[in-house]
Design brief:
The chain has 266 residues and is mainly α. Helix content is 73%, strand content 0%. It is built from twelve helices and no strands. It is globular, with a radius of gyration of 20 Å. The mean pLDDT is 89.
């Protein structure tokens, strides 16, 4: 009877169990969000002032006839989304396996591996969208958004965030030391940010590096964001960009689910 009473006292799982996992992360974030609010607005302000206004003052003709500030802002938006997504998908995921064991506690509840993974990925997308919304607000005040299509940046960065977060979840689930996470930033995130069209056109790179840049998900996000904020057609087809990012997201999901299942299912 006592056990039945305790079972009745427990709140039932939502119809979509992954929402319970998302609620767990949102509850924790509710206690820490104030620490990141200032940086969420300070980062885009300093970035716009440093690169768009500071460096842009030395580029008289802009890039392709577009003011450098307007040209660089969409690249910074996409790279910020990438960095937030990977930042939330490396040490948080690794610690949930290795240090605080949150995933093992969740798997002991009536949650499937897919629920645990989907709920955490949903929180990562929440962090990406809220960060980029603040970035859009700040850059809009600087007059760097030239088209109402700039609002479509939000679904684009959501797909970009999923395209990089899901493979990073898979990576963090199989490494045995957090040193491998630092190497991911050193050999993947930083080169991708520098050479995927964020700060200068990819066409100025040698042919080999240019094709490497095209292979990264960040370039596709940058091209879509730049087309949206400038109100122009992207260099590649919109459908091609979206399908490529979706392929990264799907492959990452399958690999992450496999890695999580190996660690959590006995």
């Amino acid at each position: 009877m006592a056990q039945q009473a305790r079972d009745r006292a427990r709140p039932p799982l939502p119809r979509v169990p992954a929402l319970a996992v998302l609620a767990h992360y949102l509850t924790g974030y509710r206690r820490t969000w104030r620490a990141g609010v200032f940086s969420s607005f300070l980062l885009p302000v300093l970035t716009v002032l440093g690169f768009g206004v500071g460096v842009g003052a030395y580029i008289d003709q802009g890039v392709g006839g577009v003011r450098y500030l307007d040209w660089i802002v969409p690249g910074l938006i996409a790279s910020t989304a990438l960095q937030v997504a990977i930042g939330e998908s490396t040490w948080p995921v690794f610690s949930n396996f290795q240090w605080i064991k949150t995933y093992f506690a969740q798997s002991a509840a009536p949650l499937r591996v897919a629920d645990i993974l989907a709920g955490h990925l949903a929180f990562v997308l929440f962090r990406v969208l809220t960060t980029i919304a603040a970035f859009l607000l700040v850059t809009g005040l600087f007059g760097a958004l030239r088209s109402p299509w700039a609002l479509t940046v939000l679904p684009v960065v959501a797909l970009l965030g999923l395209a990089v977060a899901a493979p990073t979840f898979a990576y963090a689930s199989v490494v045995d030391s957090d040193s491998w996470l630092a190497m991911l930033f050193r050999f993947a995130v930083i080169p991708m940010t520098l050479f995927a069209g964020v700060f200068f056109p990819v066409e100025s790179l040698p042919l080999v590096l240019r094709w490497l840049a095209y292979a990264t998900p960040l370039w596709h996000g940058v091209d879509l964001c730049r087309a949206a904020t400038l109100g122009v057609a992207p260099q590649w087809s919109v459908a091609g960009h979206l399908l490529y990012l979706a392929a990264w997201a799907l492959a990452g999901w399958l690999l992450a689910r496999r890695g999580f299942r190996r660690r959590l299912v006995v």
